[in-house]
Amino acid sequence: MSGRHADRPDLLVIGAQKAGTSWLHEMFADRADCWVPPFKELHFFDHKFCPENRRWTRWHVKKGLRDARARLDARGDLDAATADWLDRIGTPPFFNGTWYRGIFAAAPPDRFKVDVTPEYCAIGPDGIAFVAKFLKSARFLYLIRDPLDRALSQLRMNVSRKQGKGSPPDLAAWQAAANDPVIASRGDYAAYIPAWDAAFGADRMLYLPYGRIARDPGGLMAEIEAFTGLPPAPYPRLRDRIHVTDALPVPKNVRDMLAERVAPQRAFLDERFGAGFTRDI
User: By CB neighbour count within 10 A (0-12 exposed, 13-18 middle, 19+ buried), where does 53 fall?
Assistant: First the structure.
């Protein structure tokens, strides 16, 4: 890939939330020729262009850095240089270009660098225009999951986080969580995909169906290798499940409500990609 930057990613994985991005992050982390940041989801672009995310993006980065430091320390990999680097990227201001470039500047120069942040799909035309200028040669990957399955997975995650280890959620809790605008906004393929299509052609933008992670993970990674120019490599955790959401039973009327709401998204995907693609989402 020509025009690579030493201090910027070569690939953005832009979505979708609850569509296998954690699994894909680990696949890249397992490659000796790739480099991922010490924690998933940097939120550089969505912090700038999704104002509602600013309520929690700083918290996420600080938590990610704490967890990364503890993990590296437990493995005996927290040397003085790494500790100093974590201190620097953990010191405000966050989310400016110097901060973001400082993260990727730590990568060895021959590594293929990846930022996996599923909220990037939602940054809109202005955000995408900024990305196009900031990352002049990067490529972009968007994992697409069935709209209802994705919404239900996110709903279960949100309810589980809010409920904690307390009593099981009642119907009112499920309905309130299902009505949270974030459920719809994280899966608004009909808005997001045309915006990315308008900016990048197939040489820089790849859409893949989520269902292939379970059905054909090796073939999925081979397609990603071909797209990115990476050579074939082994993936020791290819069939692992990463960050599995609690299988809380969603009340039928809540499920039916979500199914009705996301039906236009499924229709959009069928039209945009065709049945051969969407049977695998």
Answer: middle
pLDDT tens sequence for the chain (281 residues): 456 789 999 999 999 999 999 999 999 999 999 999 999 999 999 999 999 999 999 999 999 999 999 999 999 999 999 999 999 999 999 999 999 999 999 999 999 999 999 999 999 999 999 999 999 999 999 999 999 999 999 999 999 888 766 667 899 999 999 999 999 999 999 999 999 999 999 999 999 999 999 999 999 999 999 999 999 999 999 999 887 777 789 999 999 999 999 999 999 999 999 999 999 99
Q: Using DSSP, state whether 94 is helix, strand or coil.
A: coil
Does the reported pTM lie above 0.85? yes
- Residue 147 to residues 116, 138, 180, 194, Cα–Cα distance (Å): 20, 27, 16, 16
> Which of these, 105, 122, 107, lies nearest to 16 by C-alpha position?
122
Domains with residue ranges and CATH for the chain? 11-35+113-278 (3.40.50.300)
Q: Where are the beta strands (DSSP E) in the chain?
A: 11-15, 34-35, 112-116, 139-144, 205-209
| Nearest alpha-carbon partner for 106 in 79, 136, 142, 137 | 79
Find the angle CA(145)-CA(151)-CA(157) to the nearest 5 degrees. 110
Q: How many residues does the chain have?
A: 281
- Secondary structure (DSSP) of 184-245: HHTT-HHHHHHHHHHH--TTTEEEEETTHHHH-HHHHHHHHHHHHTPPP---TTTT---SPP
CA atoms within 13 A on the CB side of 170: 1
Q: How far is the CA of 269 from the CAs of 6, 124, 160, 224, 279, in angstroms?
A: 36, 18, 29, 21, 10
DSSP state of 144: E
Q: What's the rounded Cα separation, in Å, for the pair 45 and 100?
A: 10
